[in-house]
Amino acid sequence: MVYPHAYRMEHTETNTSNNMYGLHAISQSKKIKIPPELLKLLQTIDSMKEKFMQNLAKAIEIKSVGPNLLFRNDVQKMVMFVEEWLKVLGMKHEVFNIGTYTVEGKKCRLPPVILASLGNDPNKRTICAYVHVDVPDPKFQKWDTDPWKLTVKDGKLYGNGTGCGKGPLMCWLHALLTFKMNKMPLPVNFRMCIEMMGHANSQGFGAFCSTKKQDFFNHVDFVVQIDGEWIGHKVPCIIFGTVGNIHMEMTMEGDSIETMKSDMNTIFDSMVNERMEIQIPHYSDSVEQIGPDEEMIYAKIDEFDPEEIRESLPPHKRSWDRVRLLINMWRLPSVMLDKIEECTCPNREKKMIRRHFILKIVPRQTLDYVKELVVKHVQRITKEKNLKNKANLKIISAGKPWVENINSSCYSTAKKAILQITKMEPFLIREQVSRETTNVFDSGLEKKLVILPICARGSNLGQANEHISSRCYQEAIKVLVAYMFQVASLKTKKNVKAKSDKPKK
């Protein structure tokens, strides 16, 4: 079914020639043959199930809350824990001081970044695993189990970091250990990039990585990040895009709270309508158009059931179908408004109000252009409406949207590995969140990035009662091993170049 919407390209009732969104079916078959060497590794993973859970439990016990000074010693314990594993695996590694930041009024060193490598064969592809091993402070959450103790309940592994951070770390380490146990060389060159501030917007990480662009990251073909959730409970997913956002604060300072609130409401009423659609002129002009091939990707995601969220939707969205709801979440601009707050003004003779709002940024919208549109709109409305109070805008944070070409070998190999292990073709999904790391790897380092979620929907990543199913944990290790073989099956750069250099007959 082709759904007509505002951003549909004209004359695209059939498949488009857009390289970004080709048909993504791998094969009519749901099976990919498992070669003997891979089968041997998979059998080892099955035999090590209990041991792999015990290893995860040891990681969960370490209270590695990144930005909190009270846990600084625990962060160092996490560094030592990782280092011990890297030594066991025979990986060369180095721990880097990446600068300072201010916390609780004190200037402190940022938690370090660990870079590790195994193999440097020019005839092999090189993949880099990005992992963060920090976790949020659970004292601000209500856990039903001890967040610092791995608890097995109903086939699920509960603990702070099981699905986000420490779980992914142990999946990679166990995948590498499986090769070592079988005295089998890795089919690829492997790099690992581990940080401790993933839950704190990866402070300092991007600037540090830029200094390693020409050495550590120079020959990396693909970056793999394990994070996020599936859109359902059964079918694995691959994330190929995220939204961006601009978090802004508007303040007004004056003598009358009521007058300022009235002026601020006038500005926001002109900016957003009753349906929370952005009314700023030209705001959506640059939004990337959506064609039928892209809609087909979303139409295949049948584990997303609109009925589960329909009652929570605003009235005008309750009749929308699955595809339209996914497009609205992942591909169209929107805004989220906080309430107007009264706050203390530095000048006690005056009063101040403020309001935070977050603008969703989607592909082909640029941060600078959107910022400029918002500022000019506020200035124009202030002048046209002859408002008595001047609005001041401040950028709290900003992140660009990210999208990857799903037809690239980075994705074809990931899809095949998942299909090979799970016998299911993964859904291709986007996220309604902004990730700092996508900007680091895509824009900063210019590397192909694939994000592989290993947790089913509702795993509470980064929240109270975070968990991952025992089955997902085991299968994730298998998928990573299979992924290395799939990447190794690609033609090397050397072979590709030799073929292209052949004279034409």
Automatic annotation (TrEMBL):
SUPFAM superfamilies (alphabetical): Zn-dependent exopeptidases
Molecular-function GO terms, alphabetical: metal ion binding; peptidase activity
Source species, domain of life: Eukaryota
Alphabetically ordered keywords of this record: Hydrolase, Metal-binding, Protease
UniProt GO BP: proteolysis
Gene3D superfamilies assigned: 3.30.70.360, Zn peptidases (3.40.630.10)
A Pfam family recorded for this sequence: Peptidase_M20
Protein name: Cytosolic non-specific dipeptidase
